[in-house]
Amino acid sequence: MAMSAGDAALDPLPSPGASLATRASRHPGLRSRSFSSTQAKRPYTRVVVDDEKYKEYMEVVQTKRARVVTRDDLLTIVAVQATIRHEAFLASKRNGRPKKTDYALACSQYTGRNYKVCANTWSAFVNTGDVEAASAGGPRGENATRFPRTNALRDDLRTWLYDRNLRRHRTVARDVVSFLVSRNVISIGDGDKARAAALRAVQRYLDDQGFSRGKRTGRVMYKQKPEVLLQRDRYVLRVLELRESRRFVYMDESYCHHHHKAHTDSLFDPTDARPVPKDQHKGRRYCFIGAIVSADPTVPEAARGDEQKAHFMADTLDIFEGRANRTGKPQTKDYHGMFDHDYFVGWMTKLLAVLVRRGIANAIIVMDNAKYHKKLPSEVPKSSSKKADLVEACRRWGVPFSDSDTRTILWDRLREPIKAHAKAIIVSMAEEAGHEVMFSPPHYSDLQPIEIVWANVKGAVGRAYTAETTFAEVRCRLESAFEALPPRTVQGCINSSMRRLEELHHYIQQEEEEEEQEEGDETGNEGEEGVGAGERDEVR
Questions:
Q1: In the chain, which end has fewer C-beta atoms inside a 10 angstrom radius, N or C?
Q2: CA–CA distance, 501 with 428 (Å, rounded to integer)
């Protein structure tokens, strides 16, 4: 039986065990050559390849050879398997029916390639007449990620995961897949195979980013108190309600040390081993207080003048050395200790006068929860007040009491009425001037845009610091930084805090929806259990 044109084109390799004469008889190209004794000598060293050598040589091949299977490699697999099959065909002509042989297995042993690769390559070649290598992004190349591995994505995932942990939700890779799909980070095709591929990609991503499974240990997680969450929710809703109709005045206190510097972006030579002077102690500090005002929402942006734009109110600024407060006490570790209620009442009087001069009416004055901001009038009793004063307060506010009540019981009766009816001195001052005071929720300083303004000003002072900077120069630089503060910077700080407030509002709404859904699921489960019980009773 003659070989076909396709078989001849493959030019199968001769059997390794055949002699030169035999190989020459099978391949016309070898017949024309003369085989002298000199030419017949092998040009290589004879080596006996025992089991140990075979294993050693194959390990070298597997280690040194690239794992990516190229088109040339696939063609070599086709040539080897064609040769093996042709040898089996010739043997069957000589000896009758050929032995049953696993040609893919034999090819795998000869080439050192995977069995499935050899089998699939031969099938593809027989069916199509050609082979095609996988792209470099395949499983043996450099895997292309299914989604961008950016810091923003990691931060978003960490925030989402933290929120779920707060609510005690179990989270696995499938939940992360749903999260990424909801954020339009990945898209999944139809079918189980596509879903499985997406799950594997997410699992690899979680492993690469250092996320762990199991119970988290070593750190205690504290949840915020219900009263803090209540203050937060009220503040967020109130600001969103009023921001389109009223102006906001944000005030705060801060400080700046003598040796405050902001050189984190300063160049240095990492190979220079010469010692540098140790940073000096923070030194004395300046304390300052001031206020910014938001833009007038009732005036179109294009028609706003300087006074109607958001800006820092320079005439509210007060800078003083935080060496000793007005009670004569030494400098405290917390800069708030340099302020007291009497000083703040004086500054608040100045702020209200500034608002009058600028024609700002019906404003919302936002401040934090410092004690001297919320001091009550002297006639309001305290927990340390005498029993007679507590009794008088009960009578004044109509709180029922008994003559046998102790001071502790009387104070417990008065606690809630005081919260409901007694107003802080600062609040009364603002209301008398036609304004409203709002206290920002504790632990949410990022909702106060003036905190970002302070960071901007202190950064400018810190970048100008040198070893020769004097304490007096720090004050001059503070004043210069406040004078150079443009309205667009103040507006940017307000916009930043408003974005954070909107994100927080969205989170609060989402949290409520999930809680309602969980309650609905629990109610549904209880109903199903009740129906099941009724059905069982009917069966009985």
A1: C
A2: 27
